[in-house]
Amino acid sequence: MNGLATPFTGILISILVYLIGVWLFKKSRGFFLFTPLLAGMVLGIIILILIGKYMNVSTITAYKSFYKPGGDIIFWFLNPATVAFAIPLYRRNDVFKKYWVDVLLTLFIGGFISLFGIHMISKLFGLSRVSIASMLPQGATTAVAMPIAKSIGGDPAVTAMVCILNAVIIYALAEFLIKIFKLNRASKVGIGLGLGTSGHTIGSAKAVQLGSVQGAMASVAVVVIALVMDILVPIYARLFM
Amino acid sequence: MDNKDKKTPLLVQMGIFAAILFVSQIISSLFPPTFVVPAPLIGMIILYLLLLTHVVKLSQVENLGDSLIGLISFLFIPSGIQLAGSLKLIQNEGVKDVVVTVFATIILLVVITYCGAFFIKIHRGLEKNMDKRGEQK
């Protein structure tokens, strides 16, 4: 079996579980729990647990030796994919030119209100101080959120998990949430910013599907909210925690 | 403008992305560890500026760029499966964390969306007022 500990195994598992996810999603006529990302991720984890059981090693070991080498290669492509979001932004540059002040105000003030909301909901569930500190920076993308969490006494591993969950939740539930919170009645610019902030790059991909204005605004949001959180979270933590 | 049939070769498109990421990585390393700005975000700003200044034409990046954006949910699969390494973390105390994350995601989406709608409403209101004043004068 150790001969299978090459990148090809991880790449094959990724493609296979994703395609099964796509198939399930189609067969179930778009049931939200079967969105390809969520279904694929759960299937992939199950496969690794089974490999671990079969080989008598822990799931983490199975993950590290059979999945990670290939997974890292696919993961690397998120770098150019993130850069590519400059394209939907450039296509609707007229919107950004017109509303850039509104965008900044929204992300600073909305970001602050969200921090307060996340802080309160964490307290309500009785999370520890470390967990709260890991929750706060989640508006920013993973790479930015992790060091912020660390600097205010959180656990970067929890923050990474939270940021991934953000994306998974938005990818599965965006349409549903837009419907029940009547976000459609709010402006297109608002929805774009909301999706980019809550779902990071996955939220932006969702927003691109909704329309060019939403896509452009979500792309802006991913960059700007990261900088906003870089600035706001340490200040918020010092003042209120 | 450009001849649409003349597609930029894939390797050239990849070269543009690679060059942008290379420069972004250098810029990113200049930021202090307390104020992290990751290379891909800097890269996005650079590509945006290059497009604005017409140094890079849309046709030179849009094929590859659009494909990458279309693939993004697949590219997230490794991040999702990475959670297999955190199963212990979730078992111990993480269920609460997961529930709070669901609420937090909804808070971010709803608060930011309505905040955006609010500021745009004010913006449009101000514009209308300006127009009216302009007419009165």
From TrEMBL, chain A:
Name of a matching Pfam family: LrgB
Bilayer-crossing regions: 6-25, 32-53, 73-90, 99-121, 157-178, 216-237
Protein keywords: Membrane, Transmembrane, Transmembrane helix
Domain of life where this protein originates: Bacteria
Membrane topology type: Multi-pass membrane protein
Principal subcellular localization: membrane
One GO cellular component term noted in the UniProt record for this chain: membrane
Subcellular location: Membrane
PANTHER family in UniProt: PLASTIDAL GLYCOLATE_GLYCERATE TRANSLOCATOR 1, CHLOROPLASTIC (PTHR30249:SF0), PUTATIVE SEROTONIN TRANSPORTER (PTHR30249)
Protein name (database record): Holin protein LrgB
Organism: Pediococcus stilesii
UniProtKB/TrEMBL annotation, chain B:
Its membrane topology: Multi-pass membrane protein
Transmembrane portions of the chain: 12-31, 37-56, 68-87, 99-120
Location(s) in or outside the cell: Cell membrane
A Pfam family that the UniProt record links to this protein: LrgA
A GO MF term: hydrolase activity
Annotated keywords: Cell membrane, Hydrolase, Membrane, Transmembrane, Transmembrane helix
UniProt keyword annotation of Transmembrane helix present: yes
InterPro entries, per database record: LrgA/CidA (IPR005538)
Signal peptide: none
Gene Ontology CC terms, in alphabetical order: plasma membrane
KW GTP-binding (keyword) present: no
PANTHER family: ANTIHOLIN-LIKE PROTEIN LRGA, HOLIN-LIKE PROTEIN CIDA-RELATED
Protein name: Effector of murein hydrolase LrgA
Organism: Pediococcus stilesii
